Amino acid sequence: MKIVCISDTHNRHAELQLPPGDVLVHAGDYSMQGHVAETEAFLSWFAAQQHRHKVFIAGNHDFIFEKRRKKARAMVPDGVIYLEDEGVTLDGIRFWGSPVTPTFFDWAFNHGPATIGSYWDAIPDDTDVLITHGPAQGVLDRVLPHGQAVGCPKLRAALDTRLRPKLHVFGHIHEGYGQEVDGELTSVNAAFLDHRYQPLNAPVVVTV
Length: 208
Fold this sequence. Notes:
5 helices; 5-stranded mixed sheet; 6-stranded mixed sheet; 27% strand; single chain; Purple Acid Phosphatase, chain A, domain 2; 20% helix; globular; alpha/beta
């Protein structure tokens, strides 16, 4: 299965040049504020892509999926899969998606150390492709100007001790764009915009 990974498009999705693949994954922050018009524009574009399966999660900018859940889910068109701490199996490959990130100011889907671990505990052991908006600590998560690692330590612990996905797709930290391979796990920070919110990064394609 060829998976095309994108994230953090922030309303500039139309500027992407998407390669072909079996599954198109968007790891959140399709918008700037999660307004209805932004969401409608993104979902219309996303649904029109030629990939056989299209899967996305929300990010910390995509407020509508946190504050107006029923309306947001009703907007998701046929042929598009939205995951919010839930999974789906596609062609025998098990996907799980979560929008949750560690608390940072007052953005959507933020959780502190006391509660965030419960979201990672809910991820099934047999997940093949994990989609989270943010990275695990120490994996493509360093921010400018000082290179501080800001990924989630509890997500890192879950990946180190229990979970064994083949692919982990995320974004959130624009400066961390790229991919790393550690044993059987490929980690992809698929942020389209760089830290200056310029559309400089290409989609990342991974075969699972």
